Structure formats: C-alpha cells, structure tokens
Write the structure tokens for this entry.
Amino acid sequence: MAIAPIIALLGKNPEIALFELDLLAKRYGGGTTPFAPPYFVEVNFDQSVISPQEFLDLSGGTVKLYQLLETKADDPAIEISQHLVNQQQSQFSLSSIHSHLNLKTMANQIRVELKKSGLKPHFKILIDPFYSAEVTHNFPEFSLLHHQEKTVILAAIAAQNIDHWSKKDYGRPAFDPRSGMLPPKVARIMINLALSDKLQKEPLLLDPMCGSGTIVLEALDLNLPVIGSDISQKAVSDTLQNVDWFKQQFNSSTETNVFLADVTHLTQKNVPNQVDAIVFEGYLGPPHPENKNIDNLKKGLSKLYKGVLKNLYSLMKPGSFMVCALPEFHTKQGVKNLDDLVDWSETLGYTRCARFTYGRQHAFVKRAIYVLQKKEQ
C-alpha cells in the first residue's frame, strides 16, 4: 500500500524555510518537490528513522506537516466526515489559505454527517493556519487547498510546539532589547543551514557574537555542544544565566563554553579545536538610522566584518559552513547591504552558497542571512 504524500506548510518566509526543509529531508534520506508554491511543498524522509513530529521539531521554518488524503468524491465535507467517522473522532478544525472558501458552512455540513453516525461533534475554524498550531494539537486539522483546478484535503499530522518556542523566547531570564533580538526560530534555521544535510555525531558549533545567547540555546535544544563568546561582559553574563536556566528547565547536560572575547581576536587558544560550524548574528547598527548616515554606517560595518571573516576562517574545519546575519538597509534610495564584502570574502577562501533576506515587509533594517563554506584544502 502506497504511503500518502506528506505536504509541508512553510512559514511566512518560504524561501529560507524551503532551503532548510530540503537540507533536513536530505539528512534523512529524502528531499522535497514542488506542490503548491510558495507555502506548500511535498517532503519525504525515512520515517523508520524519524517520525513526522520529530522531524518537524528539528525545523525552525516549517509550521506543519500534512498528509494528502485520497479523495473519491467532489464534496470535501463528505470526505472529511467519512475520515472522522472511520477514526471515531468527533473533534475537528478546518483551515485554508484561501479566503473565498466558506469553512463555517463546510464545518456545519460535517457536523450533520457526524451526528448521523452517533458522534457529538465539536469544531474550530482556524482563521490563519500559520498561527494555529496549538489548536491543531487538540482539534485534528483539515486544511483545504485549491490545487490544479480542484480542492484537495490535507490532514495535519504534526505541528510546531508553540508553547516550547514561546518558553524559549519569553521565559528566559536575561535579554537585552537593544541588541538584535534574533528570533529563536530564525536562529534554529541558521543552525540547520550551517549543519547542511550531513550531520556527523555531535558537531561543534561556535557563536562568536552570542549576545544574550539565542543561538547558543537553540544549539542546546538540538543537543549540540556549543561555544559562545562576546565582547560585552553583559552579553556573556546574560548568556550564562540563560544557559543555566535552559539546562534546568529542559534537563540538558550538553557541553557549553561561554566566555568574554573580541571576535576579531579569537584564536586557537580560545577555540583549541576547529569547529564544525559557525553561526552568528552580527551588530546590525542602530535600529533607526537616518538615511544620510547609511553610507558611513555601511563603510564602518564593512571594515568590522572584514576583520571578523578574516579571523574566523582559521577556526573552521575545511568544508564547514558559516551562517551569519548581517544588516540590510531599505532606504529611499534603494537597498544597501554588505554583498560586496561577502563577495570579497572569496579571496579568503570562502564560497558564498546562499543568501536570504529576512524581516518584516516594511522594516528599514532587515537581516541578510549568508551561507558561506570554507573551501576544502
């Protein structure tokens, strides 16, 4: 019997989410194929090695996994009703990214059918499937998707653990709102991009500009040994406090080393063994810079990161990846970023593998996330 295809719902930044998902799938013997761009993609992986929920829990950019239901009738309400009756399930929820579908009418049709089978139905309408994972865990979700001139039914089989993500983001005791405040899900994506699709046993990760420790905590959540450093004593203290909190809250004993150091002066004395991956968010500049100051700001940041990229190169194993978030300014005169600097880094021995822009639609300062690989020697 053929296994029903698994369809992934990507997050609101589908380009980088798809890149991460494809790497994770390849890590477990599979891959991705287009389904209904930009947010839906078919994904396959070895389910004898990892379950759909475990697979999803690794990702920062994928919201849910669905199973594509075989449809034998033209009426989705009848199909969903039959599925629920077969499962003896009286609770359900409906969602769709298509606003023209009348989900409430369909839910009432399903309720009538369930009552005919002796079930007492309860349902919820999910206005936005991207932000409803906590409902999906309690009310089995069916998502209606218009695909190839017909409506297909997707049954949710895994959803992000919103409580877990929120606890890591808002429950940690120390943070600095004046620093970059990298979202944990973005930190997770960056780590996965740095690990590529081949995950050796316990790869060592370095975050040389750790701030309050978001990337460090995400490494711990993946059970990865991690080194963190920062030029700020407050940042180091905040990270250490957050690491202690995380290890207590989540019963983690993963090896961690956090210390005070300038990223441009890190040496093999600080990091005695070459690391398997480097992930960091750099200083993005002031949150509200004036347009007239952008060129000078960009010049200063380029000088800073030239020194950073030079110094970190020797700390990486050949063939390993660096993923860094650097500033991108969306000015009235156009987009200004550090692409020239990153391209220059090829003279050091880096290869630029990918680049993504991450940020709110109308944000002035966004993140340019670069994936760099140290050349094999």
Summary: The chain is about 35% helix and 30% strand. Residues 294-313 form the longest helix (20 residues). The chain has a mean pLDDT of 92.
